[in-house]
Automatic annotation (TrEMBL):
Gene3D superfamilies: Tetratricopeptide repeat domain. It comes from the Bacteria. This is Uncharacterized protein. Keywords: Repeat, Signal, TPR repeat. The lineage of its organism: Bacteria, Pseudomonadati, Bacteroidota, Cytophagia, Cytophagales. Residues 1-20 form the signal peptide. It comes from Pontibacter korlensis. TPR repeats lie at residues 66-99, 100-133. PROSITE patterns: TPR (PS50005).
Amino acid sequence: MKRILVAALAFFCATTLSLAQEATAELSPRVLPMFGGKQKTEAEQKQDEKFLTSCDKNFRDRKEASKFFLERGWEYLNEGQVDTAMYRFNLAWLLNPDNKDTYWAFGLVTSARGDHQTAVDMYEKAIALDPKNSLLLSDAASSYLAVYKEKKKKKNLKKASSYLNTATSADSSNAYALYNLSVVKYYEKQYGEAWDYLHKSRNINMSVIDYGYIMELVAQMPDPKGFFNASSAEGTAN
């Protein structure tokens, strides 16, 4: 899963805008998490039963089948075929509602679409099944921070901070968690600590850093280490 997430991160960085634009159009339940949570027609239910019966004949069990369709979903997603990927994720969920990776996938896609509240809901379902997963917790925290930015409710900031502390306790080399802890400290106006976490993050993996955020932080407090400067429009280092 970690290898797939690294590939997916590159995809999301390149296509977040297009996904956000896609979200403005009405989406079919086939490409919404858990088929949109809507009651299916009798014909759709029969189609699901036929699909499940076919998988029962062709896989050792439904967990194996769920894993298969999840992997196909990641392949489609990394090729930019978002709707096809989401349908495969839904099939994976249909086969095994206890597969935390399907909820994780739902969270990543809905977050990239700009629907951060739904992403939070999906991440929470995944965390309920795997509460100590450092990468999962840092992704969930990122969506909580996005919700906080939109609604300014402190409970979302506290939730993000709690998940990030757990994430870094489980894996001190999680650069994305350290970066998001920097964002938490920025919102708390603790700019010195924000810089400390940012430098810890960039020492591990520079690619997780949003340079727009760096410029916001520089505007509040110059980099104590002098690594980043305000005159660099792209946030390049000295």
